[in-house]
Here is the input.
Amino acid sequence: MVGMIEAGVVELGPLENLINAVGQILLGLKQILTVVAAGIFSAPVLPVLVWSLFWLFAVDWTRLRQIILKGGWLGVVLVGVVMVIIWQQIVPEPDVVLGLEVNGYIEKMVYVTALLTVMFVCGAVQLTGCCARCCPVPVTELDPADEHGHE
Here is the structure.
């Protein structure tokens, strides 16, 4: 009986080794993708990634830059301050930031400043033109003051 079972098994030789090696490579790739996905889809990384992608690809920074240079920076600062105040009212307890236990307002100001910094870095990257193929096409509109000859 044992002789019949052994006679029915066909050894593949080098082909079997190749199939096993490809299977091990696919298993290793699956493990790598699982670790990377767990890192990307974690709580602190995914929102910052979405924030960065929005400011990098969905915003026309050539137009926004003109608005900011004409005084729109004050609106950005005020929105940041309001973000800090509202966030502090929602979550009033202080937390540890970079190993230091700080006041709640300072903590929120650090986080909001970091988000605004990421926003402006994305704008600087877009303005360099290195992602021009992926970014929105700038709309060329005349300034309303230019249409009537006034400044």
Notes: Strands lie at 96-97, 100-101. Residues 45-137 form one domain. The chain has a mean pLDDT of 82.
